[in-house]
Structures are given as C-alpha cells and as structure tokens.
Amino acid sequence: MTASADDATVAITITNPTDFQRQELVEIDADKVLRLLGVKADTAMVLQNDLGQELAYQITYDRRLLVDAAVRPKGRWVIYARRGRRCAVPSAVYGAQYKQRMDDMAWENDRCAYRVYGPALQKSGEKSFGIDVWVKNTPDLVVDQRYKGEFEAVADARRCRQAGDNDGARRALIAKSIHYDHGNGMDGYSVGPTLGCGAPALIDGDTILMPYCYTSYQILDNGPLRFSVRLDYGANSRGIVEHRIISLDKGSHFNRIRVWYDNVRTPLTLCAGIVKNGQGTLKTEGHVVAYEDPTDRPKVHGSSVYTAVFFPHHPQAAAALTPDKRNAVCTIGGYRGEKVTYYAGAAWSRYDVPDFTVWQHVIRHEMTAIQQPLRVTISRK
User: Fold this and answer.
1) CB of 11 within 8 A of CB of 80?
2) Which of 208, 260, 302, 362 is the most exposed place for a label (fewest CB within 10 A)?
3) pLDDT in tens, 187-244
4) HEC string of the chain?
5) Among 313, 341, 332, 335, which residue's Cα sits nearest to residue 244?
6) Residue 194 forms beta bridges with which residues?
C-alpha cells in the first residue's frame, strides 16, 4: 500500500511482553514506515505521541528506526508517523576519534563514556588492549571537554616543570586532568594489558591472544539516540584478524558488541571479560560476569566503578578466568570465527547505581529485556 494523501498516518504499536516497566530504544523497520507514508527522505517524517507531541528518532546505518519507548508492564504504547519536517533535537550520544590523544576512539551516552586505543598508541609501544571506562554523573556530553582539560593540564604541568616548580605541576594536573573528578566524573579505571571493560579475545590452551589497538575505523551512527562504530584490527601473530561493531544507546548502561574473526584455522575459545583491579568484588552467574572495581585511587575517590559482560544469546557461555588470572570472562568453546553478539558496560556509585546489589539487578533487568524484546506492529491508518 502506498500513501498518497498529505495526511497519511502510520500507527506504530509497541507492546511490552514483560511484567516490568520498559524504558529503552525500540527498533522498527524504517523502510516499511516510509513506504506506507509514501515518502523517501528520512527528514520528511515526524513521529508523535497520542497528544501530537513530537518524538526524537533516528534511522541507523542498517535502516532501523529508533525511538525511545516507554511502555508499562504488559502494556502497549502507540505512536504515529506522519509526513512533515522533523525538528532538531539534542543528541544523547556522541563519539569521535581523537588523533591529538594517540588516536583514541572515545564515545559516550547519558550514562557513561568509553574509549579504545588506536594506531598511534600502538606505535608508541604502550600496552593498552582493553576498553576503558570514563565514569560520569551527568547526562551531558563531556568527552570533548575532558580531552580539552587534559591537554591544558599536561601543558600547564610541563611549563611548571620547566620552571622548576614541581609542586605547581602537581597542582596543575589535579586541577584539570581527567584522572581526577572535577564534579562530573573522571577516568579512574585501570586498563593496561588487559581486557578492560568488555574487550574480546581468543584463548588457545593456556595462551590468551589479546587484541592490541584498532588499525582502522568507521563511525556508522552518531546520534541522536545511538552511536555505532566499526573497528578493524591488524593480523596477530597467527594471522587472525578481528572485527568489531560497537553500539551504545541513549539510556543504556551497556554497549552491544558484535565481534568476528578472519583466518581462524582451528577451533579456539572466544572470550570477553572484565579486568580484576585491586581488591574488587567479583560475581559470576552462568554467562554473566559482574565486578565492583575500587578505582585506581580508592583512598582518594572513595567510590566504585561497576562493570559487567554478558552473553544473553549464548546460554552455553561459561564464566572463567583468563590464563593470566587478570581477567574474569565469559567463554564460548569450539569457536571458528563466526559473528557473536554480547554486551558490556559500566556504571558509577556516584551516579545512578548506588551499590553492587543494584548493579546486579540492572544486569538481570537488561538480560531479560534483551531476551524478551518489545514487540512492534505497523499499520496504515
């Protein structure tokens, strides 16, 4: 059916199959909605609720229409797509490559920020393999501001040292460095030669084949509701090449990570996991690993970073430690390179997850929501 009237309307009904409140991005067939409206350009459509208030939406690189859905337990929510010119909305997610900081790829949403390391850092010889966490306690986008503050802190400290003022250099770093909380969060998470918060790796017997830094990237989505990036890695010592697509949605504590490998000639073990820093608390349950990380300066910060990785579509995944005992992981045996999707993310005790018990509830809630997705029906009115 093709709409021809200017007042064409498509009703989108979103149903919650679970007995708890749902607040999350729902994915809808974008091309079907546009076809029923009789429009081709994404910008020629508006989404509205039952009162006629306009709703933010995004059409992703893989043609999914995203809307931030709120649906009561066992309830349904109806929204309407109509012809019109959409209004600009502020973005809740953002990501970019920061060449000035050794090719970091950093991204964030209204809950947390993350980064992985790029070619310039690998050339330097520094060993940082995993996904880093920058905690925050504001929905504002802060990564750009933090990099700017870090560059200024380093420059100010350098000038002080050149003048022989080492105490001034220390004060300059404390005043602006991302490694200290200045009111909205910090980088207080240690990664180094580990998986950090959710990086994948391959295990062969007692040998873990750690990833290094990405060699190329492509940002696929950049708001207002989802950030997605593809990262490709160079061949390791065995000629195996890794690929990842990482997506982070508005309101979510978890990155969705799809990973696959080329040139896996014999079955290996795929894993993804969490670095065990300090004297943190580890909790494993089936295909879930959760950790309460004490931050890199527990006597200063007095807070905890909560991390987790889980495989909701792979119940055969099992919790384990990597051969070096540094990482707690979920593993899948007999792996031959196929695409695997899992989730990894973090929260901070000084924001919306006050303790480790709540964090474990957040993980269980997310697992159930993924396994029982919101249901969508589309019809022409």
Assistant:
1) yes
2) 302
3) 999 999 999 999 999 999 999 999 899 999 999 999 999 999 999 999 999 999 999 9
4) CCCCCCCCEEEEEEECCCCCCEEEEEEEEHHHHHHHHCCCCHHHEEEECCCCCEECEEECCCCEEEEEEEECCCCEEEEEEEECCCCCCCCCCEEEEEHHHCCEEEEECCCEEEEECCHHHHHHCCCCCCEEEEEECCCCCCHHHHHHHHHHHHHHHHHHHHCCCHHHHHHHHHHHCCCCCCCCEECCCCCCCCCEEEEEEEEECCEEECCCCEEEEEEEEECCCEEEEEEEECCCCCCCEEEEEEEEECCCCEEEEEEEEECCCCCEEEEEEEECCCCCEEEEECCEEEEEECCCCHHHHCCCEEEEEECCCCCCCEEEECCCCCEEEEEEEEECCCCEEEEEEEEECCCCCCCHHHHHHHHHHHHHHHHCCCEEEEEEC
5) 341
6) none
CB 60, CB 222: distance < 8 Å: no
User: What's the average model confidence in pLDDT over 105-129?
Assistant: 97
Contact 360, 283 (CB under 8 A): yes
* C-beta of residue 66 within 8 angstroms of C-beta of residue 77: no
d(CA 160, CA 154): 10
CA proximity to 103, closest of 86, 79, 128, 78: 128
Q: What DSSP state is assigned to residue 281?
A: E
Distance (Å, rounded) from C-alpha 131 to C-alpha 246?
11
**Tokens standing for residue 252:** 């979510």
- Angle subtended by helix axes 143-162 and 166-176, to nearest 10: 180
Note the pLDDT of residue 70: 97
- Pick from 372, 327, 324, 366: which is nearest to 347 by CA? 366
Instruction: Give pTM, 2 decimals.
Output: 0.96
Query: Where does 154-280 show beta strands of DSSP type E?
Result: 185-186, 197-204, 207-209, 214-222, 226-233, 241-249, 254-262, 268-275
- Centroid of chain to Cα 349: 18
Q: Residue 302, SS3?
A: coil
| pLDDT tens-digit readout, 44-102 | 899 999 999 999 999 999 999 999 999 999 999 999 999 999 999 999 999 999 999 99
